[in-house]
Predict the 3D structure of the following.
Amino acid sequence: MGTSQQAKRKRSLSVRDAEATKAQILDAAEQEFAIAGFSAARTETIAAQTGVTKTMIYYYFENKEALYQEVLNRAFIKPIDEIVQLNLEQLPPQAALESLTQLFLQQMSKNPNIASILFLEAIQNRGKYYPKQSIEQLYGKLIAILEQGIAQGVFRPLEPRHTAVNIVGTCVFYLAAHENIKHLWAGKRMLSKAMLQEHAQESLNFVLAGVRADVNVN
């Protein structure tokens, strides 16, 4: 192997090692922020979980705030991209609402830490670091679907913004509060595949029954 090829290989390995270390730090930071939130999270704990030093963490991330923002961005970028790719505008309102709700439930179930981090973000930081793109790409799409369904008579008369918030709450509260409500299901693992599937199906049924015009809610 020539000198130039060896140098390229070393650079490639170095990049991969750096990416792996950064991902490991983000994984540990996500777990810590889900437990303690931004205010109480400790970089010492994150370092201990990853086996790196605090200095190494600050090599990749300028400070705890930058690390926290990167965790939030990483948690939201892929889910939001997946929602955009659904092309919901091409679907009838009920089918669009069902598709968006199902995907959102799947995303939240894959990573329950997101729900916990967002609840703590609201309590501790009053939404200072909340990813603003989710307002447009999640709530905005929900509101548009609801408005279209109301206009077509598919959905009953609703206030779209409140309803969008209630739909999201239905999907995420179980995940954020599972340690509190586990006493309702004694002996069950709240985040097991079976329980998450049950939660997702019940949530979807609840959402659809709540908005459809052909369901009597009086």
Observations:
- Residues 6-15 have pLDDT under 50 and may be disordered.
- Residues 121 and 127 are 6 Å apart (CA to CA).
